[in-house]
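Folded chain entry —
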Amino acid sequence: MKNFTQLAWIFLFLVGTISAQQEKGIVGTNNWLNNWTEFNPSRMSYGEPTQILTGSITKDTKLLKKHVYLLMGSVFVTNYATLTIEPGTVIIGDYESKGSLTITKGATIIADGLETDPIVFTSNRSVKRAGDWGGIFLLGDAPTNKFGNGSVSSYHAVIDPQTYAYTNYGGKDPNCSSGILRYVRIEYAGKRLKGGGNFSGLFLAAVGSKTVFENVMVSYCAGDSFEVWGGAVNIEKAVSYRSNCNDYKFNFGTKSQLINSLAIRSPYISSRNGSRSLQVVSYDNKEEVDFTKDGTSLIAKNVTLLTDSKNLKMDMQMGLVKEAVYVGQNTMFEMSRSVISGFVPAVILDSKIQINESNLEKIKFDNMFFNNCEGNIFVENDSNNLDLENWYGNSSFFNVYSKGSNSETFIDSQNDKKPDFRLRINKIIAAANNDIERE
């Protein structure tokens, strides 16, 4: 009986240990990157356009898989219309006219692809490069922390007053819906703006919580891959691959979640303004926001952020690798069960954040796996992080620190066609999706 009890306890201990090890980083019983993602889109051939999209779409419209569509200039879905896109449809952004698609406030997009038949937005150039075309804008009726409502007219160089109204966003409905983006790829977006800066691959302004974002991949974007202003969005199973700017940027009082998502950075692709895997801020300039409104709040769970490099140590020494996460002042941020691998350092906090218990309670890192980072959590421009190390290094946070190559850390990161970035610990695959708790 005694031996049986001992064996039972050993079994329970092992099960508990396995469960604890399984839960960090992107998760899934199977590799959810299979079939719908593409990590080498330059080798893909999508055919020549057979239909043109231009101007305004003012009534319910459906795009069909049998056609290839050319997106010319700033295309707006207006007048509360719904744009439905069949699984497998290809939409090609025009290089010369900075093709972009904007779902205006009150309008809807239903881009509901399939794992085996994703919807693709890509470039029309023979040799494709980041920034070949604009990107996709969703403008909703949810709140932001700005004074009044906002506009993205500067992205479209809007002069016509009638068209200007199509660029407005913001309201009072945090639960509004702009539709569905599921099993969608956005390639080579991020056209440069005349006044500086770039389009984002997917730009979400004041988008509400009933909008669905699942299995969306943004690759080779010259701007931010995913940029969120205000609203309340839940992004799940998103992939940012080799972005020039930030992979995920949350700003202007958004109340959002980033769940089971992946960002892969290259040391050789980066904006001069600085690029991070994840940037969480409440404003760009204090003058543009109303401080009587709440700042940005983000919950990030089961997220994997990694630098893909053949010689990470050398790239770090050359200064090509920066921080993974930047947290700004007046924000609330919680990151848990996530992996940060190969950065210098893992996290930087805004220099204006005073390091005290009250502020650190608003910036949480727990059940983290910090791997191959030169330093973990620092305040901007301050090399002394002893207080932060003592705080986040407390055993109650269950944070783990390691040094290992990507090939040792992830199941199959070197596979060009079907990479698997789930965490490899004792050859145990990460936990199932239904183990993810939601707030």
Observations:
- Confidence is low (pLDDT under 50) at residues 1-21, 427-439.
- The first strand starts at residue 51 and ends at 53.
- The chain is about 10% helix and 30% strand.
- The radius of gyration is 22 Å.
